[in-house]
Amino acid sequence: MGDFNLALVIVAIVVCIIVFLFNVYLLVNYQHPDDKNQAYFPKFVVVLGLSVALISILMLPADVANRQACRHAVYNGACDLTLPMKDLWIAVYIIDAVLVFFVIPFAMFFYEGDQDKSVGKRIKSALMWVVTTAIVCGLVLGILYGLVGKVDFTVRHLSSTTSNFPNNWELSSSQPCIGNGAHQCSAYLANASSEKTWTMRTTFPEYVVALATIVGSVLFSIFGGVGIACLPLGLIFAFIRRPKAVITRSQYIKEATELGKKARELKKAADALHQEERSGSKGRKWRKNVKSVEKELLQLEEDVNLLEEMYPQGEKAETSWALTVLGYLAKLVLGILGLIVSVAWVAHIIIYLLISPPLSPFLNEVFIKLDDVWGLLGTVAFAFFCFYLLLAVIAGAMMLGLRLVFITIHPMKWGGTLMNSFLFNVGLILLCSISVIQFCSTAFGYYAQATAAQEIFGHTLQSLRGIKYLYKYNVFQYAFVILAVVTLLLYASFGWRRKKASGRFQLSS
After folding, report:
1. Percent of the chain clearing pLDDT 90 (strictly above)
2. Which of 35, 32, 21 is nearest to 413 (CA)?
3. Distance of CA 171 to the CA centre of its chain
């Protein structure tokens, strides 16, 4: 058992190193050329934030593996040798909240500050915004914690008589317990008056995690419900809308000429908006025009990429086209696998969470059987389902953000993402990662029972005064499933069509 604990620590260290290196790789390849060799503080925040988000998702499987370390213990003190998961959970989520509400806003304000000002003035301006936010958040959290920062547990007072040890065990539905006294099976016969509410004050860190989870749960229900359907279907329909064949040189020249004209028009519009900004006339109309230009620029870039796919050039043109075809085939395969996982997720939520009592443990039982095959196979599958849910949230955020007006999403582009877009998306991922963990600990409560995550998210959070009713009536789960079904129907009906530009810039037909 001690060897198992040592192996778990080694695996945790190796995973943290791999996550850090992977996030550095993403930063280097996604960053905009204008941010190379500068903006080091925002880059540090991006890598730290992504690392915390990914590690927090992987901590729940680690929590399960940590629990299994003392499953076959022969003495009570064996579990003291395992990882202090509850302390690690609290630490990770406090870091998460600090990053989301303070560090990332400061980095964004500093990065977007007037470049003509000195570094000191930009830091001062960013600090003023962050300090104001900190004061407001601190007052709100302090007032709420003082008023309703308590948990209400429902308990039942039971009593029964003693009975001699029976010679035989004759139990049935009419005789479910031992003994024939007046207090037979008081747990079954107890009246409602035996139920009482046990109230205690939660710790402030747990309360901060709970409120952050509520904020994240609202976003999770929306983005996750949409993303669980559009993530696999987007890959499948990308294959359906793929370019079927290479176009001729004359067609390429015609399309490239049209795109060149549109690029020049877009440059004139951008120059005009820049001139208005310098003159100080930044009104509502100006901001609306900026968003329109940004949207048309994104569409123009998509058209250019599509044209390059349809007419590969250079000495390795045939190889490029072959890789393009293989890429779309890979999207089809991943889309089909993702659709299977998405259907399994929605079915599990309905079977295990929304129907009371649950029809079946479903995926919980699958993970347990996989653990019987090999010690960590079920844990790996469990980690995959948790990580897939986070990917669905990101996919839903990008889908809704680019389609609706109620929120501004900074799109991520390979080799063309500015640090403010990076920071925004990292903040969104961090905020939703808390809710993903809470949701997974509830959805897989049978498999993840007796873990530190269950203690925090499965008991304290769902008994918190003023918040428990959202979990008692499964508000977030119902919203998730409804949005998933609606998105599936809409996407299946209209997603196969080739998307047209919302602005003027699109490939000529």
Report:
1. 6
2. 32
3. 48
496, pLDDT greater than 60: no
Q: What is the DSSP letter of 315?
A: T
Rounded CA-CA distance 52/46 in Å is 10
Q: What is the pLDDT of residue 346?
A: 92
Within 10 angstroms of residue 118's Cβ, the number of other Cβ atoms is 9
Taking only Cα atoms into account, the Rg of the chain, rounded to an integer number of angstroms, comes to 28
Work out the number of other CB atoms within 10 angstroms of the CB of residue 509. 5
Using pLDDT thresholds of 50, 70 and 90, give the confidence band for residue 456: low
Report in angstroms the alpha-carbon separations of 327 from 109, 333, 390: 38, 10, 23
The CA–CA distances, whole Å, from 295 to 250, 301, 302, 335, 481 equal 29, 10, 11, 27, 30
CA distance 474 to 479: 9
CB-based burial label for 476 (10 Å; 0-12, 13-18, 19+): buried
Q: Is the pLDDT of residue 35 over 70?
A: yes
Inter-axis angle of helices 249-279 and 284-310, nearest 10:
160
Q: By the 8 A CB rule, do 107 and 45 touch?
A: yes
Task: For residues 295-299, give the mean pLDDT.
Answer: 77
Q: Which residues, 6+ apart, have CB-to-CB distance to 395 below 8 Å?
A: 226, 227, 230, 231, 234
Average pLDDT of the residues of the chain? 77
Instruction: Read off the pTM.
Output: 0.73
Report d(CA 229, CA 342) in Å as an integer. Answer: 7
For 241-362, where are the alpha helices, taking DSSP H only? Answer: 249-279, 284-310, 317-348
The number of angstroms, rounded, from the C-alpha of 157 to the middle of its chain's C-alpha atoms is: 41
CA-based nearest residue to 186, from 147, 158, 215, 228: 158
- Compute the Cα dihedral for 191, 192, 196, 202 and give only its sign: positive
3-class DSSP state of 166: coil
Does residue 31 register a pLDDT over 50?
Answer: yes
Q: What is the 3-state secondary structure (H, E, C) of 375-409?
A: CCHHHHHHHHHHHHHHHHHHHHHHHHHHHCCCCCC
| CA dihedral of 387, 388, 391, 395, whole degrees rounded to 10 | -170
Q: At what angle do helices 204-240 and 317-348 cross, to 10 degrees?
A: 130
The conformation of residue 354, written as its DSSP 8-state character, comes to I
